[in-house]
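Researcher: I'd like a structural prediction for the single chain below. Treat it as a standalone chain; there are no partners to consider.
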Amino acid sequence: MCKTGSKKFEYRETHVCKQSGARVGEFVTPHGVIHTPVFMPVGTQATVKTLAPYEVENLGAEIILSNTYHLYMRPGEELVRRAGGLHKFMDWHRPILTDSGGFQVFSLAKLNKITDDGVEFSSHIDGSRHFFSPEKSVDIQNALGSDIIMAFDECSAAGCDKSYAGKALDRTLKWLERCYVHHKNDDQMLFPIIQGNMFEDLRIKSVKESIPFARCGIAVGGLSVGEEKSVMYRMLDALYPEYPTDMPRYLMGVGSPDCIVEGVARGIDMFDCVLPTRTARNGLAFTTQGKVTVRNAAYKDDFTPLDPECDCYTCTHFTRGYIRHLVNAGEILGARLISYHNLYYLEKLMTRIRNAILSDRFGDFIEEFRTRKEYTDNIR
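Model: Treating it as a single chain, here is the predicted structure.
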């Protein structure tokens, strides 16, 4: 059980695979139960791009993610608060997770100054000057009304030296304590974020010092930011023995099929990524037979579904040739159909993973999956 003393948030580990040690669970939130392992579609600006909320719900998503930085920039968190919070504003009735805005402040905005107080930066939209502190991040997320909020952290750049990574980690831990003290809303669960760049000892220090602030969830940040996947797996291997067992573990910004399967094998319960919708807008579909870049000329006369093993709306109604026509003609429906399919594919992948764990055969599942094109197409 989580360390909350409240029924609003609970995590129940419902089964551990005898073959692999991977687990399934149920994460209770004020807006519903999330079955883990889970993939969370990203609705950066209070929308999963090209899809209506009912479509995201129909394809099986139990939780989505929205972005604190972008919603602070526009339309502004106070407008969302006046609208009744994100759930009412975007007509999504299931759980919502918001990130802290930290990653976007460091990756999108023009930085002016990082201090122990917070980050001063210029907007990527109009150059206006802003300041995020840990308390400010919590206040914005409180106004947005998400179920799960993230602690404000410094995501040090991949490839930085250990000295700077250590300083960024120490700052992240100080900011975590400030977020924890400032956070007062029992309808929201604060997740600490494990940092430490690509240094195992810093990662272990981070998780150990973050656990006292983790009441019902902990996140791993700063991975899948340009490093080799083998390095990411090494960091996850180092962290695995250190995680608390009574709460969900969230790997931030990771969502390719290979990384999801390898992440579950290393104790991860929650994933998110813009990849399925971003690649869809470029005409690329995930399938059980590997990636299909449907805009290519090879699919002009292909009247088969995107994925013959898929029963989603896209695959049961339209052909590769038709979708290729839409994409190359610049029709929005093309992006919509591939986005729907890609998210459906990932939600079904999570179902396949959960079923393999429940059947005590996830070890066999991993070995077989590693031979499939849906894995090998994504290993680079």
